[in-house]
Amino acid sequence: MRYISGQGIERDLDILERDISINIELLLQPLDLAKARDYTFWTREQCERFAGYIIAHEPKQERKWWWSHGFRMVKADEQPRKYRWVCETCARSNRAKEKFIFMASNSQSLIAHLLKSHDIVKPPTTDNTPGPPANQRRLEDIVDFTNATETALYTKLSLRFKPSVNNLLILDWITYANHSFSTVNDPRWRRILLYNNPGLEEQQLPSHKILISLLIAEYKRAMDSVRSLLGTARGMVHLTFDGWTSRKNMSFVGINAHFIDEKWKKWTILLGLPALVGRHTGKDVADEVLSIIYAFSIASKVGYCTLDNEAKNGTTMAALAQYLQFDPRERHISCAPHTLQLATRSMMHGEGSKSVHWEELVDAFGDSDLEEDEADEFNTLGAAKDDLGEDSELKDDFSDDSLLEDLDSEATQQQLLQDLENVEYPAPVNLTEKSFQKYQRKGPFGKLHNIGVLFNRSSQLVQAFHEAQMQVHPGEPIREWVHNGQTRWQSDETMAARALAEQAALIRMMNNIEELWQQQGAKIRERPLILNCRLTPKDWRVVEAIQKVLSPFKVASQQLQGNGDVGDRETCGRFDEYFPVIEDLLDHLENCVNGEYIEERKNPRLEKIPTLFTTFLRTWIDPRGAC
């Protein structure tokens, strides 16, 4: 057997065996040693196994990736010479040579052999340029393709990952968390995904347009399955639908179905969220609801419809009844929490004819010491003024006109108009003393709301509120003001709770601002508007009283909504729960006139409540436990 080097030098086998270490070192010099074959394998005994073959190692001709896994050989007496590829792994395992010698010109056969026998695949194209940054790394940059184990793992990971499934998971997250579709276009978000999954390519990440198309396709794909599931309903399919407005002021109507299937499993499914284009009359809403009903083939199974108490919903039910042939008054169920919403807003803001007489309520809670409380309150204000004079650091913070000018510079008429349009009981656009006094007819909650409006438009007022908290409660965390919203009365109750918790800080802030105004001349036309929102001691008593009144309403709203929680809250607004709760709330309002009210017992084992309220509470929390 002969050995032919890349330079064409021929040596006898005995000379090769004697000088093999020197020749192999010279032959491998141009190659990447990390990927070169180990030619020291070719001892005399190994060469005798390949009788008639000679080694034809030539680095310049061995640039394909599969040459790093095999030897280059030819037959000694073959003309013209046809180069063979000999698998190094098989040669070392002493397998029959006919099974691992391939023609080098037929690369597909030897590549298939590497994949089938050794789980080796083609590595990615590499160069000598610096590797990608950490946030752009790829799986191919991590795997060592000269290692059979890592190569096999790479193959399995590549086959397991499916970009289509990844897109569905992203869509599920976007829709469930109510995120904007444009989130997926954020380069920082895409960079995080690429970093966490090196097997993911940039072009495999979806854009917002792809997700929108995918959402529509998934909705259409699921319609047949949902239609079949609705067909298994044991009885009627009940509906709840209500309007919803997006942050871009687009109006939709959400339509949900509730039913029990043949296996006695309760289902709640969102059937559709069609957009309302044009007028939003009851007839328009009915048209959208009917289109969904017919699309899912449940016209003959429609049961009761639970809606809020908006006036146009009567028209909606009448239109549905005309097509579906049922009694609209019988099938229309009013939303219990929305009924509580209307009642509480009427109490707080005097809307309608049943506003609360707060004078009687405050008197009932005990007003004999009110004059004494007022004196204490103003003594507190006086003490705060004295402290202000001694606090040089705080005085420096209010030493200029910036705070007084802040309302003019930041709270522009246009900005205030945009904010005040979002409330159901809007404050005046022209924030003058006269308009504020007119708005304050709605009581102390109107003043608290106006404080929130001014806080939203003035960063320096917020800073003054924070400074007052640090003076009154040094070392305690600073809490932000809670501004009430438009649709839920619970936000009013939460705003009142925060105001009561920070009552001392709010009084200190008002005093600080008034002190600064007096130092600058106390001109009436320059009086800060926020001073018109100062609550009197009697206002604070009203806020405290109304919060005690609203507390049972808040818990009742939670008890009469949703599907309940096993082991925690099992109520869900059934008729046997609805009527006892409403009766207890009516009794609660009547008892409030006498200064008695219900408190929620969060831990019955740790807290004791007056015997007078025990029956109220037990019936209210669990109607079945009433005596």
Q: What general form does the structure show? A: elongated
Structural class: alpha+beta
Number of domains as seen in the coordinates: 5
Biggest β-sheet description: 5 strands, mixed
Terminal Cα span = 107 Å
The helix content is 40-55%
Kindly report the average pLDDT value. 72
Number of H/I helices: 26
Task: Provide the low-confidence segments as ranges.
Answer: 1-36, 352-356, 367-431, 604-627
Rg is 40 Å
Keywords: Metal-binding, Nucleus, Zinc, Zinc-finger
GO molecular function: zinc ion binding
Protein name: BED-type domain-containing protein
Organism: Xylaria arbuscula
Topology:
Layout: E1 3-4, E2 10-11, H1 13-18, H2 20-28, H3 44-49, E3 53-55, E4 70-75, E5 84-87, H4 88-92, E6 101-103, H5 107-118, H6 148-160, H7 163-176, H8 187-196, H9 208-230, E7 237-245, E8 251-260, E9 266-272, H10 282-295, E10 302-307, H11 312-324, H12 328-331, E11 332-334, H13 336-349, H14 358-364, H15 370-390, H16 392-397, H17 402-410, H18 413-420, H19 433-439, H20 444-457, H21 459-472, H22 490-501, H23 503-519, H24 537-559, H25 575-592, H26 611-621
Parallel strand pairs: 7-10, 10-11
Antiparallel strand pairs: 1-2, 3-4, 4-5, 5-6, 7-8, 8-9
